[in-house]
Structures are given as C-alpha cells and as structure tokens.
Design goal:
The complex is a heterodimer of chains A (144) and B (388). Chain A is 5% helix and 34% strand. By secondary structure, chain A is mainly beta. Chain A folds into two domains: 59 residues, no CATH class; 71 residues. In chain A, strand 7 and strand 8 form a beta hairpin. Chain A is globular. By secondary structure, chain B is an alpha/beta fold. Chain B has a domain of 132 residues: Thiolase/Chalcone synthase (Peroxisomal Thiolase, Chain A, domain 1, 3-Layer(aba) Sandwich), CATH 3.40.47. Chain B is built from 13 helices and eleven strands. Chain B has a nine-stranded mixed sheet, with helices on both faces. In chain B, strands 5-6 form a two-stranded antiparallel sheet. Classes of the chains: A mainly beta (144), B alpha/beta (388).
Chain lengths: 144, 388
C-alpha cells in the first residue's frame, strides 16, 4: 500500500529538450552513456530500424535486438538554423542533417566544429555521441 | 453514382493578429460561405471542423463552433492533418455525402496563430514532425524544407534566384487579393540586398523572403449532393478527383529529398479518378509554404519534369497570362498561412476561378482546376481536382 512505483523515464535525457520520457527503447540512452549509437533489428524477419523501434511493422513482432551504428554514411542534406524553436535558442547556430548508411538513414545534427565551407552533400560522415553541457545526450555527425 | 459539388466558399481576411476569439474568427469564413451558397444554416446536415492543434487553448473546438454557428443539434467533429486539414475535411465531407449519409456538409478550417509567439509557433510546427527522435535536435519547418531545397539545388542546379522568383510571382498577385496579408510588391533586388529583411537568413539556404508567414484566418466550404447542388446552386463546382497519401514522419524514413512522395502519389490518384492528365489542368493552387515548395509541387504534380520546375516560373508560364496559372491569388507566400484554414482558402480560389468570379485575379475561362495541399513536411498530401 502506498508504495511508490519507479518510473523509467530515462528518455528525457535525449537531446536539448526531450518531448518523450518513457519508451520501450529507453536502453538507447544507456548506450549513449557508453558512447554507442544503436539501432534495432527485428529478430524474426531481420528488418533494420533507425531510429530504433520496439515493434516491427513488417512482421508485427516485438522481438528486437540492438546493433551498433558503425562505419560511414553519406550526407544527404542539411540546413543551418539562424532561428531556433523555444528551448533551443542557446544552441544556435546549429545544423540539422540527414546521413544515409545504405540500409538506414539517420537524422541528427552536424558537429558544430565543422567549418561551413567544408560541408558538402555526399561527404562521408560518422555518427558520434555528444554530451551537452547540462548532461543531456544526443549524437552528431563528424567528418569520417 | 451521384456527383458531389462545392456550392459555397468563404474565408476571413488572413491577418497578423485577429482581434477576436477563435469562434468569432470561424464565424467570418462560415458566414461568407453560407451567403455565397445562398443557403440557410438549417440546410447544413453536418459540420467538420479542421485545424492543427495547440495554437489556441480550446480542446475539441467542434462543439464550441457548432453552437456558435447555429449548427446544433446536427453532428459535428474535429479533424486534423496539420496544414492540409481542410482538404482532408473536404475528402471526408465528400465521403459523407457520397455515401448518402448526409446531403449538405460544411467544412470549416481555422487557425489563430497569434495567441503564441513566433518561436513557440516554430516549436509547435517542429513537433508536427517526430517528437521522439527529431524534435530534440531543435527542428522547425523552414529547416526541414531547407534540406529539400539544398538537395534540389545540388542535384538539379536550382538557384537562390529561382526560388526568389517564386516569391516575386506570389507578390505580383498579393496586391490583387483583398484577403491577403502581405500585399506589397517584392523584387529580386530585395533578396540580394543584405540590408533588406527579405534577404535575412532563416535556415540555410532559405531566407525570410522564401518563407510564408504565420497568420490568423478561417475558411469554409459547403459540400452538397448532386440533387441538392442542382436545386440550390446556379454554379456548382464539381469534385472530379481526390487523392491523398502519407509518408514517414521521420526524415530518416524518406527515400526522396528532392520532391514530396505524398504529392506524387496523391496527384496520380486524383488524375486517375478525374480521368485527366496534368496537361488538362487550366489553373492550380499549390502549397507554397516556402518558395522551394512551389518548385517541388510543379515537378511532383507532373507540370514539369524533375529538376525543371524552376523553368515554369522563369518563363512565366505559371503567371496569370501563362499556360498554367498557379497561385494567382498570391499563394501562401502573400496570403499568409493560417495552418488549418489554408486548404479551404486554396479551394475557394479555384472555385471562384471556375465560376468566373475571381475579380482582378480571374484567368481566362478555366474549366478544370487543381489544389495541392500538404501537411507537415510532406507528411500528408492531398490533391483535389475541381471542374465546372
């Protein structure tokens, strides 16, 4: 009676402002803490997911396993923001971007230390974990 | 099979800050549509209220509006597909009337964006994408469309000037539309003058002048069965084709970044249903939330081959005097973009054009018009084909 139930809200640590706190793929955050960006793969039909999912739309299985994002992808497109939504003003300027790994694509941010004139569509990039000053976690794309 | 018509259209002026509540804003578009249709409120069998959520505080606006507009006790409901809400509403009204469940249905779209700040609005719009995996990176609509612009420029050589020309075209017609918010001319020089606000960066490569503005507004369509339309209306405009599609909410799930797959799919469906091809379109309204969006629309709708959309605006083929007049009401770029009211405003423009009642914006004797209305960053797409 009256026992307080522990809520697993690890996902609130994702990004500058997280709009989700509880998800079945909360382990994504633990992997980020360990420096790993992970996707999921359906154990039943082998479909690969990024962003990671707990459920497979292909065969409706909820049996998925984690795999680490490794190697290089290619920059599909990006945009450098001059204005930001509420809650992100302190991050300006930053660039959102899409990187294609072949079997899956990853949406995220470009590493802030890449000079503008070195960013080219099609360039090879790798995805690395990034710790924000307040302890929040995300990932960014660096030149591979 | 009975045909379905639009017998009345209306919209409020689209303004920066509407001096009234959302129900009062809704009343403006509704009243104009009822008067246009020359029906009485009691002729309306059901209403569909459309907007994107979270710009005002009202939960479930349908009940509030139905009461304010005198539409109780008839059934009403709320419906949303972000910026394409009203054209989705038209699709639902079509099926309600086609099924015989109702004879006359009102579709009312509204948005009062001025209740929140521009930055809050960007946050809301960013949350129209994937809140779990993308919004935490600080996303907003201009930046998403900017990624499409960047990819299109890279692949096809589309230039900043090509995009600016879309705005120049829109601003040619804004002054002719007394419901439009932005009614001043725009020149290419404004985009190259670093001191002019139009050239200011928003999200590379898009500049202020490439983006439509938030607005407050309402729009309304009165949809009727063939029997009712013939009995009530002198100039019914018939719904000839409807197409709709959805896409991955996350950019990571998109294979196409130089066009919108939903627009390609929805237009194919609509052309097939109407039994026509893009060449048969006499006038179009496309969802120019950004300048690049209009160029993508030309290509996705089959008006131009992929990569050649820019040629239509450079050659002025999509000006009023051209072969395919597009957005000659000023488009979202001139009218402003009150999310949930936009689709209804686009449809209103085509209905007025097909009736020959578009005033200074009237093109010569159009018979078939097309409306392209997109929700989110190509998340939802509706294409509607209307005919006399």
């Amino acid at each position: 009676m009256g026992e307080k139930k522990e809520i697993d809200d690890r996902f609130k640590k994702f990004g500058t402002v997280s709009f989700t706190s509880v998800t079945k793929v909360n382990d994504f955050i633990d992997y980020l803490e360990k420096g790993k960006v992970m996707g999921t793969r359906c154990k039943d039909c082998g479909t690969v997911f990024f962003p990671p999912r707990a459920d497979c739309y292909n065969c409706l299985s909820s049996s998925v396993e984690w795999f680490e994002i490794s190697g290089k992808g290619k920059l599909v497109s990006y945009s450098k923001l001059k204005y930001a939504p509420v809650g992100f003003e302190g991050d300006l300027p930053y660039s959102i971007a899409l990187v294609d790994y072949g079997d899956y694509k990853i949406f995220g941010r470009l590493a802030s230390d890449i000079p503008d004139d070195e960013v080219k569509l099609g360039m090879e990039m790798k995805t690395v974990v990034n710790k924000l000053p307040d302890g929040q976690l995300n990932y960014v794309f660096e030149k591979a | 099979m009975r045909k379905i018509a639009i017998i009345g259209v209306g919209q409020s002026s689209f303004v920066r800050s509407y001096p009234g509540s959302i129900r009062e804003l809704a009343f403006e578009g509704f009243k104009e549509a009822i008067e246009d249709a020359k029906v009485s409120v009691s002729d309306i069998d059901a209403s569909i209220i459309c907007s994107a959520p979270e710009y005002d505080k009202q939960r479930s606006p349908s009940g509030v509006f139905a009461e304010y507009l005198g539409l109780i006790p008839q059934p009403t409901c709320y419906l949303e597909s972000l910026c394409s809400s009203t054209s989705t509403g038209l699709r639902m009204a079509y099926s309600l009337v086609k099924s015989g469940l109702h004879d006359v249905v009102a579709v009312l779209g509204f948005q009062k964006m001025s209740e929140i700040s521009s930055a809050e609005s960007q946050e809301r719009m960013g949350r129209g994408a994937d809140i779990q995996w993308e919004s935490p990176f600080g996303t907003m609509m201009p930046a998403y469309y900017a990624m499409f612009a960047k990819a299109h420029m890279e692949k096809y050589g589309t230039t900043l000037e090509d995009m600016a020309l879309v705005r120049v075209k829109a601003a040619t017609y804004g002054p002719l539309n007394d419901k439009a918010m932005f009614r001043k001319p725009v020149t290419l020089e404004m985009f190259t003058d670093p001191n002019h606000f139009m050239s200011g960066p928003v999200a590379s490569p898009l500049r202020v002048g490439d983006c439509c503005a938030n607005a407050d507004g309402s729009s309304c369509l009165i949809v009727a069965s063939e029997e009712k339309a013939k009995a009530l209306s002198k100039k019914p405009v018939w719904i000839r084709g409807l197409g709709a599609a959805s896409a991955s909410v996350n950019m990571a799930g998109r294979d196409l970044v130089t066009g919108l797959a939903v627009a390609r799919q929805a237009s194919e469906q609509a052309y097939k249903m109407a039994g026509i091809t893009p060449k048969d379109i006499d006038i179009a309204e496309v969802h120019d939330c950004f300048t690049i969006s209009e160029i993508l629309a030309y290509e996705d709708l089959g008006f131009a081959k992929p990569g050649e959309g820019k040629e239509l605006v450079k050659s002025k083929e999509t000006y009023k005097e051209g072969s395919l007049p597009t957005n000659v009401d000023g488009g979202l770029l001139s009218k402003g973009h009150p999310i949930g009211a936009t689709g209804g405003s686009q449809i209103r423009t085509i209905v007025l054009q097909l009736r020959g009642e578009a005033g200074d914006m009237q093109v010569k004797d159009p018979e078939i018009g097309l409306v392209h209305n997109i929700g989110g960053v190509g998340l939802y797409g509706n294409v509607t084909i209307l005919g006399r």
